[in-house]
Amino acid sequence: MKIRNLVVAIAVTCISSGCLNSQYDYYFDRPRPVLEESEMYWSELELAAGHLSLSGKIEKIDPRISVSWTEGIEYAQIIGEVTLDEGQDPDFLRVIFSSDRVEWVGTDGLDYEAYEYEDDCLEEGYHCDAVIPAEGVSGVFETTHGNYSAVVNTHCSTALTDYEYRVSAYVIDFSGKGLVHVSDTATIDIICEQI
Fold first, then answer.
1. What CATH number does the domain containing 14 carry?
2. Which of 11, 36, 105, 176 is the most exposed place for a label (fewest CB within 10 A)?
3. What's the pLDDT at 189?
4. Distances from the Cα of 137 to the Cα of 18, 103, 167, angstroms
5. C-alpha distance from residue 85 to each of 47, 51, 126, 133, 186 (Å)
């Protein structure tokens, strides 16, 4: 049951990041759209760890996430709280999330295993794909009256030692002819503790 949840999470991450459709080097080396810089940032962004319920309620949690060997993985979300200037349309905004951690998921078609390093994965004879926790793009939506958020999924895996990674995010506006970077880059450190 818990392994099935990990497989589903990895599949969703791979589909959204394109790692099932392309090779790792191609995905990370391909040209990215050019972002114009706004003359003045008019959007503010703050990040928190938490969970977003279906009703739109945000429950913040400590970014120090405990993961046990029996569970194998612990899920959370990174919540981007977006403050807009008056008159800005959130329908034309996106929050770009990324992190500085890469995990390698290897599979032989029947089984899978997560590794910290690609070489360890390849040594086992697996087909190996990169998974970046908290990488994704989110629309900006109203959670409660006048409060706007963006959300991306993340996780902590079991490992030999505790580890941490930094999630960063920024807001872009595509209401004009191009993509415009309209906020400072916000960061949060996620600490994965082994229990």
1. 2.60.40.10
2. 176
3. 98
4. 12, 19, 13
5. 18, 26, 50, 30, 18
> Can you tell me which residue has the tokens 């046990």?
68
Cα distances (Å, whole numbers) of residue 66 to 63, 162, 164: 10, 9, 12
The DSSP secondary structure of the chain, one letter per residue, reads -HHHHHHHHHHHHHHHHTTTTS-HHHHHHSPPPPEEEPSS--EEEEEEEEEE-TTS-EEE--SEEEE-TTT-EEEEEEEEEEEE-TT--GGGEEEEEEES--EEEEE-SS-EEEESSHHHHHHTT-EEEEE-TT-EEEE-EEEETTEEEEEEEEEEE--SS-EEEEEEEEEEE-SSSSEEE-SPPEEEEEEEEE-
Residue appearing with tokens 């960061």? 187
pLDDT at 105: 87
Exposure string (b/e) for 70-87, b if CB count within 10 Å is 16 or more?
ebebbebbbbbbbebeee
pTM of the model: 0.76
Distance CA 51, CA 6 (A): 18
Q: Has residue 34 got a pLDDT over 70?
A: no
| Interval 95-112 mean pLDDT | 90
What is the number of structural domains in the chain?
Answer: 1
